[in-house]
Amino acid sequence: MSDYHFDRRQVRRNFSRAASSYERHDALQIEVQSSLIERLDFYLETPFRVIDIGAGTGRGTARLKQRWPKAEVVALDHALPMLQAARRNRHWLRPFRRVVGDATALPLSDHSVDVLHSNLCFQWIDDLPRLFGECTRVLKPGGLLVFSTLGPDTLHELRSAWAEADGQSHVSRFLDMHDVGDAMLHAGLRDPVLDVDRYTLTYEQPRELLLELKGLGANHADQARPRGMTGRRHYQRMLEAYERFRQDGRIPASWEVITAHAWGPPPGQARRDGGTGELASFPADQLRGSRMRR
């Protein structure tokens, strides 16, 4: 699906280091979260279990618990320091659980989740078949998956400025909406709906953007990234190249945000097993009366 891959250990390190600073820089995340909350209106049932994948410091998880106070709401993240920081967003009247886990190997039983929610996390996972395969596995039939992720036009100004400076990769790359939608269908998710929104944040200087990315944990994490220190000359060239994007005295940074939702498939619908075969599952009571043929 793509010719680049993330260094998963580096992604975890980046977000672990950003746990204490994350909420000083998450204005975009809060804005996108509001659009995801609106998509939850499509779910008309009362959920028993709600999982927030890539919950970070738990601001979105707290909103889910506020919406469904009687549900079991779980903040799941692969960076333990983020979940430790999420403690401050747990209200004593509406607590949520915190679990360390990987989105591509969810520590959940088959068909055990009513609502899967994820806000700006999936862009850090390059194995979409495995990711959405796990979503399909844990969702109940008719359960709702709602998420946001970043598209390839994100930070194109910064990427272009670095390309002029030294021609090396300094900005993480993300998959487009068609790749995401195809992976959802391939995994067996039902009736996916995807939209793209574009946001522009502005800064006085490019350095402010770089500090914000670091504060969010959104540092470059491609496996093919340069490992050495960036030279001062190349860094200065990047700053100078970025100046050509300046408008009305401000430096822009573009964010392409994909929001989507889909539904858990009915019992027995085949799904890919990650190889060449397909798997189908049925409730045990539908298998009663079956006989083994010899």
TrEMBL record:
Keyword Lipoprotein among record annotations: no
Class in the EC hierarchy, top level: transferase
CDD domains registered for this protein in UniProt: AdoMet_MTases
Reactions that this protein is recorded to catalyse: malonyl-[ACP] + S-adenosyl-L-methionine = malonyl-[ACP] methyl ester + S-adenosyl-L-homocysteine
Membrane spanning stretches: none
Annotated pathway: Cofactor biosynthesis; biotin biosynthesis
Top-level lineage group: Bacteria
EC code: 2.1.1.197
Region annotation Disordered: where it falls in the sequence: 262-294
Keywords carried by this UniProt record: Biotin biosynthesis, Methyltransferase, S-adenosyl-L-methionine, Transferase
GO biological process, one term: methylation
Segments forming domain Methyltransferase type: 51-147
InterPro entries the record matches: BioC (IPR011814), Malonyl-ACP_OMT (IPR050602), Methyltransf_11 (IPR013216), SAM-dependent_MTases_sf (IPR029063)
GO molecular function: carboxyl-O-methyltransferase activity; malonyl-CoA methyltransferase activity; S-adenosylmethionine-dependent methyltransferase activity
NCBIfam families reported in the protein's UniProt record: BioC (TIGR02072)
Function description: Converts the free carboxyl group of a malonyl-thioester to its methyl ester by transfer of a methyl group from S-adenosyl-L-methionine (SAM). It allows to synthesize pimeloyl-ACP via the fatty acid synthetic pathway.
HAMAP family documented for this protein: BioC
Family, as annotated: Belongs to the methyltransferase superfamily.
Protein name: Malonyl-[acyl-carrier protein] O-methyltransferase
Organism: Frateuria aurantia (strain ATCC 33424 / DSM 6220 / KCTC 2777 / LMG 1558 / NBRC 3245 / NCIMB 13370) (Acetobacter aurantius)
Phylogenetic lineage: Bacteria, Pseudomonadati, Pseudomonadota, Gammaproteobacteria, Lysobacterales
